[in-house]
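Database export, one record per block. Field names are fixed; values are copied verbatim from the stored entry.
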Amino acid sequence: MFKILWSILTLKCPTCRTENMFTNPSLINLKDIDKMPKHCPNCEEDFMPEAGYYFGAMFVSYGITCFLLFMMLGISLLLYGSISRTFLYGTIVIVLLLWTYLFRLSRVVWINIALYFDKNVFNF
C-alpha cells in the first residue's frame, strides 16, 4: 500500500513504480505539462489505452482540490473560530501554485484506480 502511495506522490509508473509518467519532470514548463509517453519505457504499461482516457482525472482533480480547500478552511476555523480573509486568500494562492502538480497527480491517481480494478476486481 505504501509503495502505491509513494508511486502516486512521486508520479511514477503504476506497474513498475520506477519510471516517470511524464516526459518532462519540471512542473514549471506549462507547454509540456500533459506530455506523457505512450508506454512505460521499463515495463511497457500502456499509459494511453484509449482516446479521452483521462477525462475521469478531471473529477479526481476536483475532489483533491476541494479536499485541500476544506482542510485549510477547517484549520482556519479551528485556530481562529472563523475564516479570515487573509487565510482564505492564502489558501487560494497555495492551490493556484500547486495546480500543475495537482493536474499530474490526478492523472496518476486515475490510472492507478483503473489498473487496480482491472487487475483485482474484474479478474474473473
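Remark 1: The chain has a mean pLDDT of 88.
Remark 2: The chain has four helices and no strands.
End of record.
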